[in-house]
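In this section we walk through a basic example: taking a raw amino acid sequence and producing a predicted 3D structure, encoded as discrete structure tokens. The instruction is simple. Fold the sequence below.
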Amino acid sequence: MLNKDVFILAIESSCDDTAAAVLKNNIVLSNVVAGQKIHEEYGGVVPELASRAHQQNIVPVIDMALKKAGIPMEDLTAIAFTQGPGLMGSLLVGTSFAKSLALALNIPLIAVNHMHAHILAHFIDEEGFEKPEFPFLALTISGGHTQIVKVSSFFDMEIIGETTDDAVGEAFDKSAKIMGLPYPGGPLIDKFAKEGDPKKFAFTKPKVPGLNFSFSGLKTQILYFIQKNVVLNANFIEENKADICASIQHTIIEILMDKLKLAVAETGIKQIAIGGGVSANSGIRATLKAAEPKYGWKTFVPKFEYTTDNAAMIGIVGYQKYLENKFNDAGVVSKARIEF
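The resulting token sequence is shown next.
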């Protein structure tokens, strides 16, 4: 056992959010995120613009995280950073800064898999939030990933199902774009869906064997559905916005739940934890909670600020790696794609 507290500075820069957090053991002292609104006018993240913004944001974000935590830089025990997966230019900014600072302070450097962090965010010590027990199933859902992961320990994880094409977050955002909603459209579909009839419009769920997912066909189906009805009625989207959003969201949630039920049946594991940006969706959260009494599951939904990209989740992985002396040397590199 450690006889003194561990202070981890964590840096996250995998996409378009520059984030820094300071953790005291498994407790978050600060969690700062700087977003990038420039991408809204392009309808999606532009990698070159993202990396430039990271360069502008990283110093003030880290400075603010340290000040909010009340921890002088000299008291840091280690620095954790996102190694991948993500946009290479964005990752390089965070990696370079983390390596330089760790070298200057002569403290350990810890590389973190971004997807591991979404899963282990559940182990941040947060009042009112339970931690899952091993083994459990993790559903990681974001703009770039859709996976079902069997989690046997902090670092023993196996992907047992994943998307064969598009991620669920992309399905939400592209569907919103088809409807003419601004980027990012996923949260807007969730917002309008609350006022709509989820069974007003029927969409066919793709047939994918095993525990894998597919969303590209659903996106195409939604595109043709919108185009066909707009030809018949130019105001179709505006007149039916809530019902369209509710129907799209209902279909996507059913796809996720069908695979989760199959995963539970195959593994016998009834503890389900969700993570990733799409886990902020209120419909998914409500459906998962309703599954507890219906299927005998125990479900775990993270605190909202730990669902989207943030550095606190990088820090909790860094802390667990620190306990096991899993450090990296200065030669560690960013990886746009990284082994799970």
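Looking at the output, two observations stand out. The longest strand covers residues 27-34. The mean pLDDT is 93. In the next section we compare this with other chains.
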